[in-house]
Every structure is written in C-alpha cells, then in structure tokens.
Amino acid sequence: MAKLQTPRSKITGLGASGHGTHHFLVQRVTAICLLVLVPFVLFQFLAAFTSGYDAVHIWVGSWLGSISLLALTTAMFWHLRLGLQITIEDYFGGSFRMLLLLLNFLGCLALWLVSVLSILSIFFEG
Amino acid sequence: MSSGQNDTRPMSPFTTVWRWHVTMVTSILHRLSAVVLAAGSVLIALWLLALAIGEKQYDQLMNIISSLPGQIILFGFTLALFFHLLNGVRYLLWDSGRGFEKSTANLTSWLVMSMAVILSLALWAAGYWMLEAFPGQSNY
Ligand code: HEM
Predict the structure, then answer these.
(1) What is the distance in A from the centroid of ligand 1 to the CA of B84?
(2) Can you give the pTM of this predicted structure?
(3) What is the per-residue pLDDT across A36-56, written as a single tens digit (0 to 9) for each?
C-alpha cells in the first residue's frame, strides 16, 4: 500500500483507513443521539409495557413511538457497527479480521433492517 | 495486535504489569458493556419482529424474558446500558478536553459505576411498581 500512496495523500492525514477522523466523529454523533434517545424510549416503554401486546402495539404504531424507535435503532446499529469494528480491529488480524468485519457489517445491517421493517409494518398496519 | 507481523513484543502489557486502578476498571468495563449491549441489541430486533408478527409470538418471547433467568439477563443488559451511557458521557467530556485530572478521572469512575447500579435498580423498581399499580393497563 505504501508504494501506492502519493505524498499528497500522506499529508492530507486520512491515515491507514483512508477515512480520516470520519469513523471517530460518527461514533460521537451517534453516541450523542443515543444519549437522548435511550432515556426517551425507556420512558415510553415503561409506560406501555405493563399491558401486553395490544398496548405495546399501539405505542410502536403511533407516530411518536415509531419515529423514536426508528431513530433509536438507526443510531444504535450504526454506533454498534462502528464500535464493534474498532473492537475487532484491536484483537484480530489478517483474513480472520476481514471475515469478522464482514460479519459485523452484515449482521448490524440485517438487525437494523429487521427492526426498521418491523416498526414500519406495525406503523402502516394502522 | 501484532498478528501478521514478526513482532513478538507484548502489545498490551497493562493487565499484567500495571497496578489495578479505578480508571482502568471503567475503561475495560466500557468495552465489556459495549459487547454485552451488542447481544442486547439482537434482543431488541427480535422483540420488534415478534411484535410485528403477532400476539402469539410476542407473548412467547415475553414469557421467556420474564422468566427468572430471563430477568437476570435483562437486568444485566440494564446495568450495561446505564454504565455505557454514563461512561459515554465521560468520553464525550474528554473529547472536549475536560475531566483529565487524575482526581477528577478517579472520582467520575466511581460516580459512573455507582450511578449505573442506582439507575438500574431505580428503573426496575419503577417497572415493578408500574406492574403493581397499573396491571394490564397502559398509560398510552
Ligand atoms: C446510550 C448511549 C450511548 C452512549 C453515550 C455511548 C457512547 C459511546 C462512546 C463515546 C464510545 C466510544 C468509546 C471509545 O472511543 O473508545 C462508544 C463505544 C461503543 N459503543 Fe456506545 N454508547 C451508547 C450506547 C451504545 C449501545 C446501545 C451500544 C450497543 C448496541 C453501544 C455499543 C458500543 C460499542 C460496541 C462501542 C465500541 C467499544 C470500544 O471501542 O471499546 N453503545 N460508545
């Protein structure tokens, strides 16, 4: 890789990943979102969960419920993908690292899609 | 780590060489809680999926969760969540250049750990109280 790197790209400071501080910043931005969203959703959950399926279904299908849950799951799985990537990179190398990074990416994407689809289907059910 | 390189020097000798101190504990706990939350996030996706599929699946999942082992695991998730959330604030304050003094960092370590326990107990107390006070009734 070093041979392919031009002196210019070296001084623009994008580092080994080629993405500079982007990862770091998005980890921070999603952390701040979660800081607000997690308590906000916990309160709503607490108000709804005692009464079983119907009430929870109404909450998740409401505008407030579905928007907060969509925001929460999006921020959370994005944050999780970035965070697990760092953790994987700290302990594993070589092609096993690549495999784990791929699984991390696909896993977080799948869980996010399942969550979003579930919320939307409840929302549009009425 | 050093995999893939011919470098046999220990890269992270801190756990064997350093004296244990509280900021080290919270640092390790941040990563540990993050990995625990990764497992917890699978449960959130499954919970939403069950809710979308139907009442039978939702009740099945809730029965598993509300069993004793289920509740113990869920309490672990709660602890991890509050710890990670509170300790995350420490990281964000550090990013703004604050809180690096040794005495401050030690103090906030203890603060974050004890607040995580207190908030988790408080949330569960509130949950049990809601079940007692409003059985089968939603505030929604
Ligand atoms: C609730 C609010 C949250 C806040 C304020 C927060 C904050 C943070 C911060 C600041 C970091 C960066 C730490 C570093 O640079 O080493 C981080 C890392 C991480 N977070 Fe969160 N987080 C939150 C919720 C979550 C949730 C819900 C999950 C899991 C679904 C999660 C998973 C992770 C992971 C896997 C890492 C990487 C751990 C590491 O590098 O050791 N976080 N979090």
Answers:
(1) 7
(2) 0.89
(3) 999 999 999 998 988 889 999
The domain tally of chain B equals 1
Start-to-end C-alpha separation, chain B: 50
| DSSP H or E segment with residue A115 | helix A94-125
Q: Is B4 in Cβ contact with A114 (below 8 Å)?
A: no
The answer to whether residue B121 sits within a structural domain is yes
> Residue B44 corresponds to which tokens in the numbers above?
């959130």
Task: List C-alpha distances in Å: A60 to A69, B33, B59, B128.
Answer: 8, 27, 16, 21
Mean pLDDT of A29-42: 98
- Subunit contact A55:B140, Cβ cutoff 8 A: yes
Q: What is the largest CA-CA distance in chain B?
A: 64
Chain B residues with beta carbon closer than 8 angstroms to that of A121: 52
Question: Ligand 1 centre from A103 Cα, in Å?
Answer: 19
Residue B84 lies in a domain: yes
